[in-house]
Amino acid sequence: MSGNIELLSAALAGAKAEDRAALIAYLPAGFPTVDGGIEAVKAVVAGGADVVEVGLPHSDPVLDGPVIQTADDIALRGGVKIADVMRTVREAYEATGAPILVMTYWNPIDRYGIERFTAELAEAGGAGCILPDLPVQESSVWREHADKHGLATVFVVAPSSKDERLTTITAAGSGFVYAASLMGVTGTRESVGEQAQDLVRRTRATTELPVCVGLGVSNAQQAAEVAVFADGVIVGSAFVKRILDAPDEASGLAAVRSLAGELAEGVRKR
C-alpha cells in the first residue's frame, strides 16, 4: 500500500480553493491512552481539522513546550510504542479519511529502521512525516524510502533560517513546509506575528509548496490572524491542554472537538 501524500496535497489545495487556510491539529499518540488518543484524533477531524499530526512521544522533546512534554510523559509512562503510533494512524485514517502525518524526532526512526518505519507508515495509510530535527543534508536515505512509499517529508523552517538555507530546505521537502515561530509570550505576540509573516513571505519565495505556521495559536482570533498570511494554521498545545484540563475522557473529547470547530471558523475568516 502506498502512503497518502496525494491526500495531503488535495486537502491543502481544497482549503486554498475555498480561499481559506487549512486547520492542522497536533495530538500525541498514546495520550491520554492509546485508545483515547485515537478518539481524540477522530474528535478534532469531526470538529473541522483538515489534517492531523500524530506525535510520536519522546523522552526529550526539545522543540515542544511544557504542555506537550507533559502529554508525552503520560504516554511514555503508559508504555506507548511505535506500533501504537502506527495503530493510531491506521484507525484514525480509516475512521476519518483525513490525511494523518507522524511528527517525530529522528532518533526513534533511526533505531526502528528507516525502511521498516516508512513501509509500516504507508501501510497504515499515513500521509508522511514531520521531522523537526533531521538536517536536510543528512536526509537523502530517509527521503528515498519516503518517496518509494508515497510519503511526504515535511521539514521545519524557523525565523533564524537564512534565505539560502530556506531554498535548500524547501527543495528537499514535500507535502508542505512547517514554519515554526512562537507567539505565546505575553507582550511579544504582535512583533513575533510580524516575524512569522516575514518567514512565510521568505519561504514562499523559494517554493510552490504550501507554507503552514505553528505559532502557539490557541483560539479562533489568533487562527484568523495567522490565516491571513499562511496556507495552514497548526495547533497543538491548545488541544493537548483541553485534554489535560478535562475531568474525564469524554469531557476532553468534547472539548477538543469544540476547539477544532472554533479554530475551523477562525481559519475561514481571513
Automatic annotation (TrEMBL):
One function term, GO molecular function aspect: tryptophan synthase activity
InterPro entries: Aldolase_TIM (IPR013785), RibuloseP-bd_barrel (IPR011060), Trp_synthase_alpha_AS (IPR018204), Trp_synthase_suA (IPR002028)
Residues annotated as transmembrane: none
EC nos: 4.2.1.20
Record-linked Pfam families: Trp_syntA (PF00290)
Listed HAMAP family: Trp_synth_alpha
Family: Belongs to the TrpA family.
The protein, known as: Tryptophan synthase alpha chain
Organism field: Streptomyces yanii
